[in-house]
Each structure stands twice: as C-alpha cells, then as structure tokens.
Amino acid sequence: MKTKKQDRLIGFFGDSFRRNYIGHKQVPTDYFPPAEFERIIQATYLYGDPRGGYIPIVDTRIRLRTLTLLMRWSGLRIGDAVTLERSRLQGDNLLLYQAKTGTPVFVPLPTFLVKALGNLPSGPRPNPRYFFWSGNGLPKSAVADWQRSYRCLFSLADIRKPDGQRKRCYPHMFRDTFAVELLLAGVPMDQVSLLACAVVFPFATATSICRSKLTICSGVCFFPRAIQRSFHTSLSHSHRY
What we know:
By secondary structure, the chain is an alpha+beta fold. The protein has helices at residues 2-18, 34-44, 57-74, 78-82, 111-118, 139-157, 172-184, 189-198, 203-209, 225-233; strands at residues 89-90, 93-97, 104-108, 215-217, 220-222. The protein has ten helices and five strands; from the N terminus they run ααααβββαααααββα.
C-alpha cells in the first residue's frame, strides 16, 4: 500500500513537471565566512533567558556553542551531531561509520573542540552515552528542539547580506562551511567530496583511491595529514572559542 502511494505521488509530480505546471528551481547553497561564523559564536554568549531554565543558562550556551563547533569542524548533519555517542570520540578523532557498509572512518577534530566536548555540561536529562541527547523519545524530536534553538540564535546573530537584507541561516550551512573552508585551505576537491558530501564513505570507494588519497588499515580509513593540518590551520583564531 505504501509503495503504491509513493508511485502515485512520483507519477503525479513527474507528469506535472513535464507539463510545466511546476518548475525546477535550484536553491543555491550558502555558507558562513569567518566573520559571520564569529558573529554566531559570539551570539551563543548572549543566547537565552538569563534567568535560566532546566539547567543554568551558562551551561545551555556552552552546549549550543559546542554543538555549533562540532557541526562546523566535522561536517556532520544536525541529526547526526545531536545523537552523537561519546564513544565515537577517540583521542582527537571522531569515529564514524558508513551507513551501508559499516566501514569505520576516523575524522580528525581540532584540539579546542575535543576539549570542549570533554568538558561539556550535562543537559536537562543527562545520558552518559550521548553528548547532546537524553536518549529518550525519538531523535527527530531532539533535533526539532535544537532547530528551534538555532532559529533564536540566528535571529540574535542578525547576519545581513551586503544589501542589508537578513541572511537566511540554517544549521546545515555549518556543513557547507566545513566544505568551503577545506577548499579554501587547499584541500583537493575529490577529498572534500569524500569528507563533506558523504562524511563517511563506502569501503569500495575508499579502496579504489587508497593508493593516492587514503591509507586503509584493517578496513579503517584515515585521512591524510594534509587534511588534518587544514583542520587546525584554516581558522587559526579558533582557539579562543
């Protein structure tokens, strides 16, 4: 029954597109240049009601700031970042798994972010297994809560375009920023596509390029030192976060 409904929906929109009842509009992606990202980070220090809530407002601000840095420096989607398990952080590397093959992949993180994750205050319903999620309810409900927080944060940051109009900001733009900053740091496009477009990638793909791009050890993929250095040097001022 579900398949039939999906087929009907696909057929309806396909026919509407062919008849030009609906058009194909590409929405360009955007990212946060360093100055805009700095405004967002500074806004986390002002976020929320000073009277606090379930947890002290200072802890809430630290948690929001750390989640922001995590998405910026790992390229994780907000859903993956919110439900990230503590066991995935191994030293200064983030251990991820490719969804289809289960191939483990280590993504290096800058030192200041590793320290922030290690000192992360507890949430209103702490769970020792996760950084930002209580483990109760559905993950999408937790993500929706954080998305509401980001709408308030972006409003507080008040980022503007050159013409004065307010810039439309979304948490996914941290992922785009991750990719753009790697390109600006000189990381080749094919390596950025592996990091940013998939974050973790199939073992077959990794094997085909391992001789020139990656080192494969017992099925574990490690990114070359050139990429690791770009994490620490592309925004050298980030230590103050």
